[in-house]
User: Which sequence fits this backbone?
């Protein structure tokens, strides 16, 4: 059986329907476009086609509409703009200026994606199809060369597939960084049947959404990777474990599984070979710890998601005690590409120890928040300043939090570090799953550490004592610090608890939990000391330690802060100096954010 | 109108849902998802029937219901607000949104209003980081929410019109 030929129409209008764009009204835009295009006269050739795609990456400026073949990109499109797009742009008129992307820094107006600094400097492997195709269409995936790698793999010896993955140098993208091919080999060599394949789609790190984007935007690439993996280790059944919060990912994957089954890519005797394999979707229950592989397997089995010790790896004894190969979404999506282009091509990208690319979600206080895929070894500064546009107007970039709750905060001065699996460990952080949270002068590092401890205290499964009690104790200390009731001895106590957690926790949730605390204490000690000694929060975030007031010399009476104050605590009239009523002020900082004159001043209490 | 539009909680109705799944341990979470979607919480008798159906002790089923955050053991409101408190939303002011919601709805995090119209909670990252801070009202994501826009959003959610099909 051969794969049917498929091609994409040249005249397509791609509407980004990723989570970010949908929240801004992309679905309404898509619907409006579809109904406008339905009225096309039969004489129009080739026929224009509206396509709802996955995430285009530049979420900050959505909804995004890309018109092919002219390759014009419109940003922040609303349903009301569609009539004009159809009447003007599709008729060959000049691009509509107000919908074009305007670079905030250079003031340039950009039309084609290749002109955008955001896109131009990316290298897409994992996201190769995301945003280009309709994720619910198998035809679209086939037209992009989909399932050709599977066809190839079915003709290869399982050992040769494994060798190819090993020489590609692919490492686990979920954060662990374990060499993927080595894991495959271990599973292939373990005895026992049946064998299982798992795709870990329990993307729990707050601030990371690259897996979501792949599952929503190119679900077949994940499936194809899994089928190839199953062939390599001779597994008969696969599971995709998707976190509960990703409702759209579940819909897209379910559709992909059904279509793949129907087309003979899944099920009995795949593509008429002697190989059979099927995949089942499992919806998580909303527990961060289930991203840990042994906890995830416990959850599939129908238990609470508690990790276990790993004297025996899942490759030997995993799901229901059987040999199990578990990889993350992004890892699986790399597999078809590696088989298609060859290990040597893949390994030519990246650093000595980390090959290929990595998808980062650059979020927080950056101008172009969204998804960025770059070769391993790109510097943080390149990713944040050159691609994501740096900190917004008038703000000072202070730190970058990378690696989720297991990672750490890296100060601005160290942003020239090149990111790969090994480089950040020395700085007290890690690449992890690739969430980059940009923080500016209005982010309190003590509060950030407190936030992570609160998060982890809620997510610790409670099985081992150091994690259960240690994190809670640190949360208590950090909460005290945020209220201005801490002492310098608290800093030493934090260090002590961190050492214990690193040494004695059962799984990586506990072992890496100290990172946010240790890195902030190390690089932002003066901010801790300001809370302790001066009872002051330099960022103006900790409410018990903050007051906002208006400098009468700088206030020009524009009334902007007054309009935005949620509790009407600001008094004043146009062109008169405003005053904040301290008894009513709730210290939300909205006035500070709004003021264009820098007249709002942060003070201590 | 609001309360009467909730589905009736009866043994037969519970069983109709539960028996859609094979009686195996691994189907406990899918059963709970189904029950929770339908009733907006997990009624205790339904959990007891789940335990019977899957042959797992009730204590274990109950521990799962409390372990996983997707499930609620108390009835949730007709309209359920989730304030995203992922890192990005947090540093972009999700706390202010939580405060405003609590003020306008008259309930605290994790509570349901007495007429079962509204309930609210904070959740971990919903993956909408690029448009933070985000608020999830039922299934709709609101981007870049400010304290001022919270009131407008609440007004969109009037009567109880949940579709339980």
Assistant:
């Amino acid at each position: 059986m051969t794969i049917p030929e498929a091609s994409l129409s040249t005249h397509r209008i791609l509407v980004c329907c990723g989570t970010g764009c949908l929240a801004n009204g992309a679905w309404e835009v898509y619907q409006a476009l579809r109904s406008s295009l339905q009225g096309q006269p039969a004489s129009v050739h080739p026929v224009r086609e509206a396509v709802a795609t996955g995430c285009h990456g530049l979420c900050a400026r959505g909804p995004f509409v890309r018109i092919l073949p002219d390759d014009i990109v419109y940003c922040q499109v609303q349903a009301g703009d569609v009539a004009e797009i159809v009447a003007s742009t599709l008729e060959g008129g000049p691009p509509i200026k107000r919908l074009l992307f305007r670079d905030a820094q250079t003031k340039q107006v950009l039309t084609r994606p290749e002109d955008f600094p955001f896109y131009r400097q990316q290298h897409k492997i994992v996201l190769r199809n995301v945003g280009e195709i309709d994720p619910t269409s198998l035809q679209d995936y086939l037209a992009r060369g989909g399932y050709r790698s599977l066809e190839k793999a079915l003709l290869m010896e399982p050992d040769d597939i494994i060798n190819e993955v090993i020489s590609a140098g692919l490492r686990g993208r979920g954060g662990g960084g374990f060499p993927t091919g080595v894991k495959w080999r271990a599973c292939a060599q373990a005895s026992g049947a049946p064998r299982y394949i798992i795709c870990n789609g329990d993307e729990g790190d707050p601030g990371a959404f690259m897996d979501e984007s792949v599952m929503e935007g190119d679900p077949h690439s994940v499936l194809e990777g899994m089928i190839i993996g199953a062939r390599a280790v001779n597994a008969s059944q696969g599971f995709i474990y998707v976190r509960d919060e990703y409702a759209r990912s579940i819909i897209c994957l379910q559709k992909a599984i059904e279509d793949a089954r129907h087309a003979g890519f899944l099920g009995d005797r795949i593509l008429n070979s002697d190989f059979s394999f099927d995949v089942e979707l499992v919806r998580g229950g909303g527990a961060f710890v289930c991203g840990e592989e042994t906890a995830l397997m416990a959850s599939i089995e129908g238990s609470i998601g508690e990790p276990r010790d790993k004297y025996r790896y899942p490759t030997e004894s995993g799901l229901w005690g059987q040999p199990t190969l578990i990889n993350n979404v992004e890892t699986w999506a790399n597999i078809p590409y590696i088989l298609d282009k060859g290990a040597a091509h893949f390994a030519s990208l990246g650093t000595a120890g980390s090959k290929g690319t990595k998808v980062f979600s650059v979020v927080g206080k950056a101008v172009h928040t969204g998804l960025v895929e770059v070769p391993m070894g790109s510097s943080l500064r390149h990713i944040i300043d050159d691609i994501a546009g740096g900190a917004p107007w008038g703000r000072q970039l202070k730190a970058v939090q990378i690696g989720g709750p297991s990672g750490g905060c890296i100060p601005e001065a160290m942003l020239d570090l090149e990111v790969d699996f090994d480089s950040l460990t020395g700085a007290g952080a890690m690449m992890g799953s690739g969430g980059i949270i940009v923080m500016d002068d209005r982010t309190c590092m003590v509060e950030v550490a407190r936030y992570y401890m609160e998060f982890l205290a809620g997510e610790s499964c409670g099985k081992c004592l150091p994690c259960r009690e240690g994190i809670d104790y640190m949360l208590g200390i950090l909460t005290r610090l945020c209220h201005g009731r801490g002492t310098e001895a608290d800093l030493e106590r934090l260090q002590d608890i961190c050492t214990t957690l690193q040494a004695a926790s059962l799984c990586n949730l506990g072992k890496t939990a100290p990172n946010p605390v240790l890195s902030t204490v190390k690089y932002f000690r003066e901010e801790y000391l300001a809370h302790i000694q001066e009872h002051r929060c330099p960022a103006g975030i900790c409410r018990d330690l903050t007051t906002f007031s208006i400098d009468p010399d700088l206030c020009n009476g524009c009334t902007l802060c007054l309009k935005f104050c949620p509790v009407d605590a600001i008094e004043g009239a146009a062109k008169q100096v405003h005053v904040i009523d301290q008894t009513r002020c709730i210290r939300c900082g909205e006035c500070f954010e709004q003021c264009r004159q820098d007249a709002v001043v942060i003070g201590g209490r | 109108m609001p309360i009467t539009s909730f589905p009736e909680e009866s043994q037969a109705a519970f069983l109709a849902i539960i028996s859609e799944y094979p009686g195996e341990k691994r189907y406990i979470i899918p059963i709970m998802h189904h029950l929770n979607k339908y009733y907006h919480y997990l009624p205790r008798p339904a959990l007891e029937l789940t335990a019977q159906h899957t042959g797992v002790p009730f204590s274990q089923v109950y521990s799962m219901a409390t372990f996983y955050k997707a499930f609620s053991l108390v009835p949730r409101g007709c309209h359920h607000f989730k304030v995203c408190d992922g890192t990005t939303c947090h540093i972009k002011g999700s706390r202010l949104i939580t405060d405003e919601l609590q003020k306008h709805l008259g309930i605290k995090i994790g509570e349901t209003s007495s007429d079962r119209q509204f309930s609210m909670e904070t959740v971990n990252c919903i993956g909408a980081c690029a448009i933070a801070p985000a608020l999830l009202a039922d299934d709709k994501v609101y981007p870049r929410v400010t304290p001022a826009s919270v009131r407008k959003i609440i007004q969109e959610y009037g009567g109880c019109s949940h579709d339980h099909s």
About this structure: The beta strands of chain B are 79-84, 118-123, 135-137, 140-142. Chain B touches chain A through 48 residues (CB under 8 Å). The two ends of chain B are 18 Å apart (CA to CA). Chain B has a mean pLDDT of 88.
